[in-house]
Amino acid sequence: MLTNLLEGKRGIIFGALNDKSIAWKVAEIAHQQGAKFTLSNTEVACRMGEVRELSERLNAPLIAADATSVDDLKNVFEQSQEILGGKIDFVLHSIGMSLNVRKKRVYSDLDYNFLNKTLDISAISFHKMLQVAYQMDAISEWGSVVALTYVAAQRTLCDYNDMADAKALLESIARSFGYIYGCKRHVRINTISQSPTMTTAGSGIAGFDGLMDFSDRMSPLGNASAEDCANFVVTMFSDLTKKITMQNIFHDGGFSNMGMSQRAMTQYNKSFENEMAKPWELDPTATK
Ligand SMILES: NC(=O)c1ccc[n+]([C@@H]2O[C@H](COP(=O)([O-])OP(=O)(O)OC[C@H]3O[C@@H](n4cnc5c(N)ncnc54)[C@H](O)[C@@H]3O)[C@@H](O)[C@H]2O)c1
Q1: Ligand 1 pocket test: which of 95, 125, 161, 195 has the largest number of ligand atoms within 8 Å of its C-beta?
Q2: Using CA atoms, how far apart are residues 284 and 288, in angstroms rounded to an integer?
Q3: Is residue 166 in contact with ligand 1, taking CB distance under 6 Å?
C-alpha cells in the first residue's frame, strides 16, 4: 500500500456535497495521503451541515463559489493559495447539474434556458476554472486537474438527457486546455469516466437503479464505487502519473468496451420466461 502519495501537495476540491459524493471520498483519501486542500461548493451547499462537518474534520477550509461565476472562481484560487501557502498542485472538478433532468424535460422537449444552465454548470465551469487558474498562474508546474465524466458522452444511454452533451463538451475542454496548459506549465488535464454511482447527482437520472444493475452485469470487473474512483483520482493527482494528459480515462470495470455479457444476457432472457415463445422464434424475420 503506497502512503503519503500527496505529501506536500496543495489542492482545491470542488463538489463535495454529502458522504455519497465522489468529491467527498476524494477529500478523505487525499487527506489520508498527506495533501492539504480547500473545499468549494455553492453557497447553499456550504450552509448545509454536511460539507461543513467534512471541512472541520479534515481541516480543509470551505470557500463558497458558484462555479459558473468567474469572480467566485478567482476568489477560490486567490484564497486557496493564501490559505495553503503557495501555488495549487491539484484541482478536482466534481460538478454536474441539469434542470432538464430535475424537471423531467425529456431530450426531445428540452427547455433551452435549462440546457444553457446544464452546459454552464456541468462543462463551461471547467473552462472558467482553467482559464482563471491559467491567467492567475495559480497552478504549479506538473500540477494535475481532473474532471469527472460519464460514458454517455460517447454512447447513447437513454434518459441521460442533456448531461450527455455537457459531458462531451467537458471532455473536449480537457483536451483543448490540456494542450495549452501542458505547453505553458506542464499542467496536465484529464477526465475520468466513472461507472454509475449512487450519489445525489446520479440518483436524479430516471431509472438509475436499473442503469446501475445493467452496468454492473455488463462490466467484467463490476461497477467502480465512489471509493474506487477516489483512489484513482488521487493517483492522477500524484507524481506517479506525470505524463498522462488530455485523456478521457474510463474507470468503469470494463463497461465501455463491452457489447453484451453473459450476466446481462441471462437477466434479459428472464424477461421472456413467462411468454410462450420469443418473438423471433415465432417469426424468424422479426427484429431481435
Ligand atoms: N454519480 C454518477 O453516477 C456519476 C457517474 C459518472 C460521473 N459523475 C460525475 O461526477 C461528478 C460528481 O457528482 P456526484 O455523483 O458525486 O454527485 P453530487 O451530487 O454529490 O455532486 C455534484 C456536485 O455539484 C455541485 N454543484 C452543482 N451546481 C453547482 C454550481 N453551480 N457551482 C458549484 N458546484 C455546483 C453540487 O453542489 C454537488 O456538490 C459530476 O460531474 C457527475 O456528473 C457521476
Answers
A1: 95
A2: 9
A3: no
Spelled out in words, what is the top-level CATH class assigned to the domain 10-282? alpha beta
Q: How far apart are CA 99 and CA 101, in angstroms?
A: 5
Which of ligand 1's atoms lies nearest the C-alpha of 22? 16
| Amino acid of residue 215 | S
What span, in angstroms and rounded, lies between the C-alpha atoms of 126 and 15? 12
The reported pTM is 0.95
Query: Per-residue confidence of the chain (288 residues) as pLDDT tens digits?
Result: 778 999 999 999 999 999 999 999 999 999 999 999 999 999 999 998 799 999 999 999 999 999 999 999 999 999 999 999 999 999 999 999 999 999 999 999 999 999 999 999 999 999 999 999 999 999 999 999 999 999 999 999 988 999 999 999 999 999 999 999 999 999 999 999 999 999 988 887 878 899 999 999 999 999 999 999 999 999 999 999 999 999 999 999 999 999 999 999 999 998 888 776 666 666 666 655
Give residue for cell 484541482: 91
- Grid cell locating 2: 503506497
Count of beta carbons in the 10 Å neighbourhood of residue 197: 24
Residue 272 is which amino acid?
Answer: F
Q: Is the CB of 191 under 6 A from ligand 1?
A: no
Residue 150 near ligand 1, beta carbon < 6 Å: yes
Residues 6+ apart with CB under 8 A from 287: 280
Sketch the domain layout of the chain as residue ranges.
10-282
Give me the residue label for grid cell 468567474. 70
Question: How far apart, in whole angstroms, are the C-alpha atoms of residue 118 and residue 170?
Answer: 11
CA distances from 36 to 3, 7, 86, 116, 185 (A): 15, 8, 11, 34, 21
